[in-house]
Amino acid sequence: MLTASGPKVLEFNCRFGDPETQALLPRLDTDLLEVLLAAALGEKLPTTVAWHKGAAVGVVMASRGYPASSSKGDAITGLEKARDAKE
Question: In the predicted model, what is the mean pLDDT of the chain?
């Protein structure tokens, strides 16, 4: 977020396991390897990153009690209904 005193980070999620990343990464048109390699080598990063046009949606299912104390063994149901609605 840009403020009068400069940019401020509110939240930083960049793990590739994050649902946001799973939804957005397929829209990336720039070669991810080139960006990550430049970052790892301390080289200059591209000034722009290209994205495919369109929207991205992620649906997350979490077990009862998440994130404090997730339960195990819960049945996941309704996937067929969601798939049928998509078609």
Answer: 82
> What stretches of the chain adopt beta strand conformation (E)?
2-3, 6-7
Which residues face 40 on adjacent strands?
A: none
d(CA 46, CA 39): 10
Q: Which of 30, 36, 33, 25 is nearest to 48 (CA)?
A: 30
The pLDDT of residue 87: 58
Burial of 5 per CB tally in 10 Å (0-12, 13-18, 19+): exposed
Query: Which parts of the chain fold into alpha helices (H)?
Result: 19-24, 32-40, 79-86
Cα(13)–Cα(3) distance, rounded to whole angstroms? Answer: 20
